Amino acid sequence: MPMADSDVTTLYIPDARTSRWDSDEYAHIVMKHDQMRGYVAGEPIQALCGKVWVPSRDYEGLPLCQACADERDRLLAGMNRRN
């Protein structure tokens, strides 16, 4: 199923993993339905870069995870080629 721009949102969440993009200093991109499920139900969600965690608050203002941004751009480019 094609992904619309409105289906993707930026969620700012820190993480304690050791990868450069998984530190507490970066925001991650998640699917919008996953973001709401994480906040409302307290379920673990997965970012486009593969990071999994349970969101607990808004982390606005952190720099964007480059791995998430690259994956978002790849997905959107694929959608544009189909249109």
Description:
- This protein has 83 residues and is of the alpha+beta class.
- It has one domain (5-82).
- It has two helices and four strands.
- The chain has helices at 32-41, 66-82; strands spanning 8-11, 28-31, 45-46, 52-53.
- The strands form two sheets. The chain has a two-stranded antiparallel ribbon. A two-stranded antiparallel ribbon has the order 3-4.
- The mean pLDDT is 78.
Write down the domain tally. Answer: 1
Helix coverage percent of residues?
25-40%
Instruction: State Rg.
Output: 13 Å
**Tally of contiguous helical segments:** 2
Largest sheet: 2 strands, antiparallel
Could you say which overall geometry the principal axes of the C-alpha atoms support? Answer: globular
Q: What structural category characterises the helix and strand content?
A: alpha+beta
- The number of strands is 4
Report the span from N to C terminus. 13 Å
Mean pLDDT: 78
Flag low-confidence runs: none
Give the H and E element order: EEHEEH
User: Roughly what fraction of the amino acids lie in strands?
Assistant: 5-15%
As laid out across the biggest beta sheet, the strand order is 1-2
